[in-house]
Amino acid sequence: MTGGNDKSVKALKEVWRRAENSLCADCGKPDPDWASSTLGVFICLSCSGIHRNIPSISKVKSLKMDHWDDAQVQFLAQHGNAVTKATYEAHIPIYYYQPTYNDCQVLREQWIRAKYERKEFTEPGKQLPYSDGVKEGILWKRGRDNGQFLPRKFLLSEREGSLKYFTKQDAKEPKVIIKIDVINATFQPVKIGNPNGLQITYLKDNKTRNIFVYHENGKEVVDWFNAIRSVQFHYLKVAFPIASDNELKSRLTRNFLKEGYMEKTGPKQKEAFKRRWFTLDHRRLMYFKDPLDAFAKGEVFVGSRENGYSVQKGLPSGTQGNFSWRYGLTIVTPDREYLFTCETETDQLDWIAAFTSVINQPMIPQEYAIEAYFKVKS
After folding, report:
1. pTM, to two decimals
2. Fewer CB under 10 Å: which end of the chain, C or N?
3. CA–CA separation, 174 vs 172, rounded Å?
4. Are 180 and 235 in contact (CB under 8 A)?
């Protein structure tokens, strides 16, 4: 906002203060202090960096540090986030994942490019690469035993309600067939060590199995992600015909509530605590020896408070197992207590908050069946 006459500076401030412009147009982060002088949207610093990579579409400037001339201010005033969204977000498919500022770079970049560069959502009924119920292609998949990433053919089919992958390009039979109703997919660039890393999980014999994949092309891997969501959505439309679109949308792919290392002890609570990687996926707490293991070493069902589940700060007095981390927490279930320790107090409080958010939610009918399975198994 440096330079310029007082009138244009005042006008820019007025446009900037509008309620519609109080969040980043692309990721929803509060208090954006950048804007696109060619699109007319107010955006955060992080999204401005993505806009800068598509200069043919968007020219970005700082609202605090850059000079805005009268014509640019007038353009912003005539547009702003609401008007621009009405054009570029007019026809987003209900299943399409709209990332927030908490999401990874590849999701946010492809969302921005889909809107402004490819104009995927400006017209109704547009044929999109993830919308026709079938997708076939190569993804690099991590080997379960050797940890090597090798190219594998994947086939997603709405008609068959499944995702398959093949160990060889010309293989007639798939290595694995995954039913679409038990799949989850979530981006994991840090864990996988690739900016386009995607973790696909599914249930096999009611146990969680992980597949780690990536594609060199960011658009391609995000298209796979949204294709999975599209097929899931249409499957749910048939399975639950009276449910609203928003209800179905909430049952598509989900991010894990929390992941990270904790130490745990065994059921006798006298064994030495061992460090494990934990993933909280709604009511399933899974633990792994390594974050990239294909199968969990164990799973714990986390029910609701009204069904006798709770989380407590600290360990029971007299806990005997040797542990190196000081910040304990205890999950209480109707059958037993699970003891964990965290490396820092921040980790401890974050885990307690995540468990509390799950425990405070009433259980739905399907979750009682999962709870019963866990009880039989134990």
Report:
1. 0.91
2. C
3. 7
4. yes
Closest to 157 (Cα-Cα) out of 103, 247, 235, 43: 235
pLDDT 10s digits, 147-203: 899 999 999 999 999 999 999 888 889 999 999 999 999 999 999 999 999 999 998
Q: In what order do the strands lie in the sheet with 60-62?
A: 42-43, 34-36, 60-62
* pLDDT over 70 at 378, yes or no: no
Assess contact for 63 and 35: CB atoms under 8 A.
Answer: yes
Q: Which residues are paired to 285 by β-bridges?
A: 280, 300
Structure confidence at residue 3 (pLDDT): 47
- Is the pLDDT score of 213 beyond 60? yes
Architecture in CATH for domain 258-376: Roll (2.30)
Give the range among 28-37, 108-117, 191-200, 312-321 with minimum mean pLDDT. 312-321
Instruction: Pull the structure tokens for residue 253.
Output: 């792919």
**Which run of H or E residues covers position 205?**
none
Domain-wise residue ranges, the chain: 3-117, 134-249, 258-376
Query: Residues 292-321: pLDDT tens digits?
Result: 999 999 999 999 999 999 999 999 887 776
Helix residue ranges per DSSP H, the chain: 6-17, 45-52, 70-78, 80-88, 105-112, 189-192, 218-239, 245-249, 345-359, 365-377
Measure the CA–CA gap between 284 and 359, rounded to whole angstroms.
Answer: 12
Asked if 221 contacts 215 with a C-beta cutoff of 8 angstroms, the reply is yes
CA distance 247 to 335: 33
CATH fold group of domain 3-117? Annexin V; domain 1 (1.10.220)
Which DSSP symbol is given to 314? S
Instruction: Judge: domain 134-249, CATH 2.30.29.30.
Output: yes
Residue 111: per-residue pLDDT: 98
Crossing angle of helices 6-17 and 70-78, in 10° steps, is 20
Beta bridge partners of 327: 342
Helix then strand then coil, % of the chain, to nearest 5? 30, 25, 45
Sequence-distant (6+) residues with CB within 8 A of 217 are: 196
3-117 matches 134-249 in fold: no
